[in-house]
């Protein structure tokens, strides 16, 4: 795996997101309501909107511009207007570091 450091575990608050760039790819690092950390593509598939500026609720992130929600585990849109998923990347917690493998996105079913 080619995981690299994205941020520290404490850098992201519960039910919040932050944007990082790894290998030229914009990633939203998201901590859901249970404290699990996810890494998804930061750009909404409905428009060129940064998802990390959106709202996190339970295990979803909502685009602030048009209201599409994306499942953090699968990247799949949960409502319109988006109908294409965003990529989801493997996350490894190594001590206080959040590592993300942007070279091997998770397969979407």
Structure description:
With 109 residues, this protein is an all-beta fold. It has a single domain, classed as Rieske [2Fe-2S] iron-sulphur domain (Rieske Iron-sulfur Protein, 3-layer Sandwich). The chain is 0% helix and 39% strand. The chain contains no helices and 10 strands. The strands form 3 sheets. It has a 4-stranded antiparallel beta sheet, with no helix packed on it. A 3-stranded antiparallel beta sheet has the order 1-10-9, with no helix packed on it.
Give the number of helices: 0
Largest sheet: 4 strands, antiparallel
Structural class of the secondary structure composition? mainly beta
Share of helical residues: under 10%
Characterize the overall form. Answer: globular
**Second rung of CATH, namely the architecture:** 3-layer Sandwich
- What is the radius of gyration? 13 Å
What is the CATH topology classification name?
Rieske Iron-sulfur Protein
- How many strands in all? 10
Ends distance: 21 Å
Determine and state the CATH class.
Mainly Beta
Averaged pLDDT, please? 96
Our count of domains comes out at 1
User: Can you list the strand order of the major beta sheet?
Assistant: 2-3-4-8
* CATH superfamily annotation: Rieske [2Fe-2S] iron-sulphur domain
Order of helices and strands: EEEEEEEEEE
Low-confidence stretches: none
Strand percentage: 35-45%
Task: Provide keyphrases for this structure.
single chain; four-stranded antiparallel sheet; globular; 10 strands; Rieske Iron-sulfur Protein; three-stranded antiparallel sheet; dioxygenase activity; mainly beta; 3-phenylpropionate/trans-cinnamate dioxygenase ferredoxin subunit; 109 residues
């Amino acid at each position: 795996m080619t995981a690299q450091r994205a941020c520290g575990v404490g850098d992201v608050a519960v039910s919040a997101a932050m944007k990082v760039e790894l290998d030229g790819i914009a990633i939203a690092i998201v901590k859901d309501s249970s404290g699990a950390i996810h890494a998804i593509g930061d750009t909404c598939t409905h428009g060129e909107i940064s998802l990390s500026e959106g709202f996190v609720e339970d295990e979803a992130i909502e685009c602030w511009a048009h209201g599409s929600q994306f499942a953090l585990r699968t990247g799949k849109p949960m409502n319109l207007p988006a109908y294409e998923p965003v990529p989801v990347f493997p996350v490894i917690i190594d001590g206080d570091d959040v590592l993300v493998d942007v070279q091997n996105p998770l397969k979407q079913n």
